[in-house]
Amino acid sequence: MHLENLSLIQFKNYTECDLSLSPKLNCFIGNNGAGKTNILDAVYYLSFCKSFFNHVDQHNIRYGDDFFVIQGQYERLEKPEQIYCGVKRNQKKVFKRNKKEYGKLSEHIGLFPLVMISPYDTGLIHEGSEERRKFIDGVISQFDAEYLHQLIRYQQVLNQRNKLLKEPNAVRHAATFEVYNQQLDSYGHFIHQRRQSFLDEIIPVFQSTYTELSLDREEVSLQYHSPLHQKRLADLLEENFSKDLVLQYTSKGIQKDDLLFELNGHSLRKSGSQGQQKTFLISLKLAQYAYMAEKIGLKPLLLLDDLFDKLDSDRVERIIQKVSRNSFGQIFITDTNKHRISALLKKYTGSHHLFEVDKGAVVLKEE
Model-level pTM? Predict the structure, then answer.
């Protein structure tokens, strides 16, 4: 699977842009703020129906305009596929596959798998547990539609239970709470089991990848923490009901799950250097890539935004060598340093396009 052509109209800083892409490696060079990352974000949009950076669609319309359009022409399973995304101010987003609009956007997730590695990934380390749950859910949802469905239903019931907990006489609705608890227990058990299976499979791949990129200099681990490891959710909800009434929200459940990152047995956030943290995140995302490729049967698109910052040249070269293998498909890379990209391309023997980006204009410089 690969993206053959990308077309933008009034998206972010682009008035119009039309790109014919290499099926393997596409490099975008230019100064900060030129629009390199916006190209990658447009590709991300076509896979996830939303921006990687700003989930408010109308904020991605070019300043002063009333709409944006992103279109992509793909080759998928040896068949052409056309994806259309259109956003107009104060109107519903339109998303189409081969000119047919989706009834639900969730139907599109996973058809065009993608892995994005970005400087914003540091939020996985430094932000709260919600960011790490989003990572887990985002990976599993790309190949497991039932997981996404159960996750949505869990959140809907959780919102209903939390709303009821805020009512003055909530304690009187015992029968309703019992129904909510049973539903949360069913959905939560399914989600917990899927998350556990995912981590059991991805952790060895992640550790192997980190060892390769760091030349076995450090040991890393992922620890999955969940209140459902010890008890069924129904029991936890019943035991903590009085506490929930005081707090006015549900204190136990899979919405409290977390993923702990460790380096040499210590917290990565506290003990890891910037280079080690970035290598950790890249290894995690490359493990995600390998996991998804196996589960889906398609090589995801790989987007590498500002890959080289905070990494020494040796680690960069090992990363490039790894993603250049046949186990990887189409790759997009952004960088501010033309000489660095040129040196990379001299060692790369496969198909590639080099684009220069300047103030919303993209020019093909080398192919």
Answer: 0.87
